[in-house]
């Protein structure tokens, strides 16, 4: 694929950064709701927290995770970074795919809790395992997303065999200056 012209590259990068870090921020909100759902003594707050988690999950977090994946792949293919030339890009791709799959799997217990909370106030220890699990999941997702953000900025050295070959083929005038 031909590299993006500079303006398109910047526009695409803006979209990628916006959706990816938007995803991180939305997971922080999700964690706050999960903590309120477990610890609050006000039944209205507990009920509202789980109902809001389902809404935020499906209408904000899931779309942002998919947008992050799609814009990230586009940004890789449309720049000299490539999708499989640098280890940091491969690690980002794997972590993002893993985080997206786990998110989709965990939306099921969120739906279950939202239904239970909407029907009746959740009493103290009801469904406690699931509620604690959601806090752990959201905290783990935050750690992964911060790691991915760090990788993006630090871009640790390390090229794959394919990346080194492509660099040799492109010769000394390869568009490395674009880095
Ligand atoms: C949670 C997921 C992600 C986060 C938080 C994230 C974050 C970022 C950030 C902050 C940058 C800007 C770095 C800079 O300009 O110095 C960036 C750039 C980039 N990201 Fe991501 N990213 C994510 C997912 C992905 C995925 C899945 C891919 C593709 C495999 C990807 C590929 C890239 C590439 C190639 C760049 C460099 C683009 C350029 O220089 O034009 N990212 N990412």
Task: Break the fold down into its secondary structure elements and pairings.
Layout: H1 6-39, H2 43-77, H3 87-119, H4 128-154, H5 161-170
Bound molecules: protoporphyrin IX containing FE (HEM).
The total strand number stands at 0
pLDDT averaged over residues: 92
List bound small molecules. protoporphyrin IX containing FE
Strand proportion: under 5%
| Oligomeric state as shown | single chain
Largest sheet: none
Number of domains: 1
Evaluate the radius of gyration: 20 Å
> How much helicity do the residues have?
over 70%
Query: Would you tell me the structural class of the helices and strands?
Result: mainly alpha
List the total number of helices: 5
Shape: elongated
Distance between the termini: 17 Å
Return residue spans where pLDDT drops below 50 for at least 5 consecutive residues. Answer: none
Q: Which H/E pattern describes the elements?
A: HHHHH
